[in-house]
Structures are given as C-alpha cells and as structure tokens.
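Pipeline run #58 for the internal structure catalog. This entry was flagged by the ingest filter as a single-chain record with no existing model, so it goes straight to prediction. Upstream metadata was stripped on purpose; only the residue string is passed forward. Reviewer on rotation: M.T. Logging verbosity set to normal.
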Amino acid sequence: MLMQVFGNSLWTGVGVVAAAAAVVCAAILLALLKTGLAWRLATDIPNDRSLHVRPTPRVGGWGMVPVSVIATLLMAPSLWSAAVAAAFLAAVSQIDDRRGLPARVRFAAHVIAVVGFVVLNPAPVPWWVLAVLSFLMLWLVNLYNFMDGADGLAGGMALFGFGGYAVAALIGGHSMPELAMACAAVAGAALGFLLFNFHPARIFLGDAGSISLGFLAGALGYWGWLGGAWPIWLPFMVFAPFITDASITLARRLLRGEKFWQAHREHYYQRMVRSGVGHAGTASLWYAVMATGIMIALSILGRSAAVQWCVVAAWIVVLSLMGAAVDLRWRRFQSTLSEQSTEV
C-alpha cells in the first residue's frame, strides 16, 4: 500500500508524514491555548519539587497522542494494537492528570496495555524472555513519565528517539515501511509539541502524553526487533540517556530506602537545571548526547554482533562518565550554596 502511495520514494513519504503530524499537532495545541481549554483540561501547579514557577497546562498529550494514533492506524494498520493500547493509556492517564488515580489503578492499566500488546504480537522465544521484555517495556512506560520534568526534554527525546527508529526501520536488516511511517508520525507530533514546550514552556506533556510515549517507545522498539529491522539492543541505545538517568536514580533511591514512586528532584537532568545549566541548556546538551548515540547505533547496524555489543557497552560507560560529571558539578554547587549560607 505504501509503495503504491509514495512509489519508490519512501524517504519522501516518511518526511511528508512527519511534517503533516507536526502541523496538525501544533494546530491542536494552539487551539487549546487560544480557547483557554488547555487550562480547564489539566493544569500543573508548581510545588517544592517542581522546576517551573507558574501554573502551566499539561495537555501536550492531547495533540501528540491523537495525531500519532490516527496516523498509525491510517499509514501502518499492522500496528493497530500499539495504536489502540497507546490510546487506552492516554485516556486513563488523562483521568489521572485531571482528577488523580491510585497508583495501583495506573499500574494495572500499564500492565494491561503491555501484556495485551505482547500477547497479540508474540515473538518465537521462550516465555520467560517475553516476560523480561514485558517488564522492560513497563519500565519504559514509567521512566518516560519520571523524565518529563524539564522544558523541552521529553518532547525532544521523542523527536530524536522516534526519528531514529524511523531511519532504522528503513535501513536496518529488514526494511519495515509501515513501522517507519508510524515512528515518523510520533517524531513529527513531538516537533509540533516542542514549538510550545521548549523553554519557556507554554504547555507541558502531562501523563497522557508521557505514559503513551513511553509505551510507544517500548512497543515500536519491540515491533522492530520482532520484524527483523534491528537487534534487541537498538531501542536501548536510542533512548539510552533517558533509561540510564531514570534507572540510576531509581537504584539510588531504593538503596536509601526511599519511596521511589514519590516526586523528587534528584534526576541528572534536574540537577543540571538547578545547578545553573538551565532548561534550554540542559535540553540542548541532552539532544546532542541522544543524537550522537542514535548516529552511532545506526552506523553499526551492519556490523557483527560482537562489534555491536562492544559499542553498546562502550556507550554505557560514556553515559556513566557523563553522569559522574553531573554529580561532581552538583556537589560543587551544593558546596558553594553551603558556603554562601554560612557567610550570611
């Protein structure tokens, strides 16, 4: 079908889908702002753990999710289960954004979406492998929500991450045009959202957006591996900055016996913003790191498995060193604040 629509120029088709998604998403969000409906749907009120200082509507998902879901159903019907699950999660999360839901209800929705998707699209591997992959997808769903706390960050990660997926789906071991179109739609919608979310943000993503994006990052990554477009490590490599930040922060909080599900300001990106790098500077640095990781991942797709895994391991080391640098900057910042407080 896609070949009939776009002929041999699938790259052009991917670009058209991305551009259309960006325009439609931006138009939806602009309408929500102009009509004042954005504040009535869901508003983020600053608290002592926030990085922002004024009430801001968190309705980015209202633009991104419908565009991504409809585009997927139209351009990539084989991925209908991912689209339906993302829409389901967005609906549940919007209720949470608006009224609040118990953690057990939210988590149950995540499990239903992930397990339902995997059951409908099983891989020919042992059951325990599917169980592990399902757990990792659940972690992606939640970590994307954890990492949605600075202007332009989560939206930019979606733009680069799903854009990387789209390219990999066309140049990987087995070309998957429908997957490329679905990923391009999500990346394009993220660009439309970023027009309103880059610092100073006029709109936040909200749980309806972040939870759905986390699910799609895992589901489309799984689909690409299932179809032979890329190896199992590629989704990790693409979203590595998000995954490493959230995972290390969670591990630290667990080791300290803290309630990891409670809001806090201990992520690397939060420390960067608070220590003077700022929202725009932090987002820009993260974009550069993510773009670098994606380009490295794409460049080694044709190499041997041994080379691929060595590069992945090396990239984990590089990201860990970057994290150590952020920790060092944070300690110096805290020390300076302590000295100034003592002088006063």
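catalog note: The two ends are 70 Å apart (CA to CA).
catalog note: The first strand starts at residue 43 and ends at 44.
status: ready for reviewer M.T.
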